[in-house]
Amino acid sequence: MSCTVAIPSSPVFSPSRRSLSCKAASASPETVSISSPAPPAPTAGSPLRPFGLLRAQIREEASPSPKTSSAAASAPAGSVLKRRRPAPLMVPVDGPAAAAAAAAAVAAVESDPRNEVEEEGDEFAVYCQRGKGRRRVEMEDRHVAKVALGGDPKVAFFAVFDGHGGNSAAEFAAENMPKFMAEEMKKVGGGDNGEIEGAVKKGYLKTDEQFLKREESGGACCVTALLQKGGLTVSNTGDCRAVLSRAGKAEALTTDHRASRDDEKERIENLGGFVVNYRGTWRVQGSLAVTRGIGDAHLKQWVVADPDTRTLLVDQHCEFLILASDGLWDKVENQEAVDIARPLCSNNEKASRMAACRRLVETGVSRGSTDDISVVIIQLHKFSASS
């Protein structure tokens, strides 16, 4: 009887394989002789000695010595060789040129005139400042102050837009929402509160629709105030906020659309989406912390542009209105903002209103805000029903 048997070359199953032949002795069919390379002679000691020999063999195979390399080159065709990790690919970088390009990019951002913006009128003041901790990121906030919306001196429109993922959506909304809002307001004429709120909603939705047609990335949160004689209509999407000073008491006129809100979570989940807590912040689809806004095409199924809107009567107790982006509200409470601004707004002077806007921004920055901050303060005495 003759046969060919493949067995490991060591008692502990070395990864190398060798073909060994065995033949039965002609004199006795029960006797089998095995021809193979003689293993290293065991020495006296522990029965685990073969494992020590195996470790030594592995270390020898892994050694990059010339002796090992020549042995591998002359290894028989049937043996298995150990693969080595290739050397890392080094991509040359022109250090001085790269540093100069980075410095130029930073300088361009830092010199942008929109990093700090002031605007004021007879009844309002605006101050916007780019976040100091955001190198190589452009100012993403925008604002609107139209004291005669669509040429109508009886209607004023103010807004703050807080962009994310770039400034494209905020820029587009600031340039186009006043126009869309004026068109919708003309359709309702002197309508009731319900018709005016419907016109505002259409203005938001049209702004969102037209921006999405541009197929640009990014989005924007909004807060807007539409003022007519005796009436104030405030709307928002996202986490920009409107706070009214009513005889010195702060009254939040909007509620932030954050993914942490139970009703917003439920709405998104009913639409087939999900909200998860990522590094301490609830996010839509694990991405965006707000649940409503202009743009955000990749999340449009869940992040809608439908605003929450509220209309109220402006009476003699309504002193001023603060519109601001979340860069302020993340560091300053509603009542605190009113307390800071009220002493400077009581005399209804331009310089004092601007000082109030600046002081609010400075307070947020001093408390660690690195986000863009935009603040609009509107005196309401002119729009009071009793004035």
Automatic annotation (TrEMBL):
Q: What class of enzyme is it?
A: hydrolase
Family matches, as InterPro entries: PP2C (IPR015655), PP2C_BS (IPR000222), PPM-type-like_dom_sf (IPR036457), PPM-type_phosphatase-like_dom (IPR001932)
- Single GO molecular-function term? metal ion binding
A GO biological process of this protein is: abscisic acid-activated signaling pathway
Kindly state which reaction or reactions the protein catalyses.
O-phospho-L-threonyl-[protein] + H2O = L-threonyl-[protein] + phosphate; O-phospho-L-seryl-[protein] + H2O = L-seryl-[protein] + phosphate
Identify one Pfam family in the record: PP2C
Return the Gene3D superfamilies for the record: PPM-type phosphatase domain (3.60.40.10)
Residue ranges occupied by any PPM-type phosphatase domain in the UniProt entry: 123-380
Q: Which EC numbers characterise this protein's activity in its record?
A: 3.1.3.16
User: Which portions of the sequence form the region Disordered?
Assistant: 1-79
User: Which coenzyme or cofactor does it need?
Assistant: Mg(2+); Mn(2+)
Compositionally biased residues, Low complexity: 8-21, 63-79
Entry superkingdom = Eukaryota
Q: Which UniProt keywords apply?
A: Hydrolase, Magnesium, Manganese, Metal-binding, Protein phosphatase
Q: Sorted alphabetically, which PROSITE patterns does this protein's record hold?
A: PPM_1, PPM_2
Keyword Hydrolase attached: yes
Q: Report the sequence similarity comment from the record.
A: Belongs to the PP2C family.
Q: What is this protein called?
A: protein-serine/threonine phosphatase
Q: What species was this sequence derived from?
A: Brachypodium distachyon (Purple false brome)
